[in-house]
Design a protein that fits this description.
The chain has about 260 residues and is of the alpha/beta class. The protein is about 50% helix and about 15% strand. The chain binds nicotinamide-adenine-dinucleotide (NAD).
Length: about 260
């Protein structure tokens, strides 16, 4: 389905990005994995996906908080047909206690990196007359929760960037859309549980049931495979006229 297409997935040595990388490789795309580390484990992950899917898979380290490294990732990959902007971090704190440097890091990694990688990838996509940009926003790109000021701000920004990119790319064979997952049980969510326990004064099970999944009417976490499958769909011919929009994978959260 995606044979001959080269996909770059930022922040893909874990969680949703890794799930998307697996699904793109299963669909026949060549895949570039990324994170800021350069460990043997990172390269082993690329090898494992390559072996199991038969796709060409490489790992390129680049820190998505740094402008030059965002742009450098696209250059080093030597071509990008599919760009998935997925790298992201989270911090949970009251607005008045929110550390300024953490705010800056979340805005840089969760939002600005998508601008820098897209700016670097678009000229090549335009030249080929084909391209797909998939931005991983969040239910928090459409709605807010307390104690997540930087994250909610960055994800709303990603949705705005998605619409603008789509308009500029329209008619050039290039689409740009955002996937808005609800809660997916990945390390970023796992790490929030102790903070939420502290903030709300609840135990782990109560936080999961009454804070996290309370907003998700299905009562279930979404899976990385489901988000990956949605990304593959957005790269398919069936989605060629889907652009500038958001697709929620949130068990009904944003329908509430
Ligand atoms: P995760 O922590 O498992 O993955 C985050 C990825 O980003 C990791 O691969 C990490 O190495 C990478 N990363 C972090 N800082 C980076 C940097 N400076 N440079 C390059 N890579 C960096 O979390 P996840 O849940 O898989 O999150 C992936 C994306 O999905 C994020 O953008 C997140 O906001 C979004 N999201 C997650 C959920 C959820 O419930 N898990 C819901 C909605 C949206």
């Amino acid at each position: 389905q995606l044979a001959g297409k080269r996909a770059i997935v930022t922040g893909s040595n874990s969680g949703i990005g890794l799930g998307i990388a697996w699904e793109l490789a299963r669909a026949g795309a060549e895949v570039v994995l990324n994170s800021y580390t350069d460990d043997a484990d990172d390269h082993a992950l690329a090898e494992k996906i390559a072996q199991e899917t038969g796709a060409r898979v490489r790992y390129i380290h680049a820190d998505m908080s740094k402008v030059d490294q965002c742009r450098g990732l696209i250059e080093q990959a030597e071509g990008c047909d599919i760009l998935v902007n997925n790298a992201g971090i989270q911090h949970v704190a009251k607005l008045e206690d929110f550390p300024a440097d953490t705010w800056d890091a979340i805005i840089a990694i969760n939002m600005s990196s998508a601008f820098h990688t897209s700016a670097a990838a678009l000229p090549g996509m335009y030249a080929k007359g084909w391209g797909r940009i998939v931005n991983i926003a969040s239910a928090h790109g459409l709605t807010a929760s307390p104690y997540k000021s930087a994250y909610v701000t960055a994800k709303h920004g990603v949705v705005g960037l998605t619409k603008t990119t789509a308009l500029e790319a329209a008619g050039k064979g290039v689409t740009c859309n955002a996937i808005c997952p609800g809660y997916v049980l990945t390390p970023i969510v796992e790490k929030q549980i102790p903070d939420q326990m502290k903030t709300h004064g609840m135990d782990r099970e109560t936080v999961i049931k009454e804070v996290m999944l309370a907003r998700q009417p299905s009562g279930e976490f979404a899976t990385v495979e489901q988000v990956g499958g949605t990304a593959v769909f957005l790269c398919s011919d069936a989605a060629a006229q889907i652009t500038g929009t958001t697709i929620s994978v949130d068990g009904g959260w944003t329908a509430l």
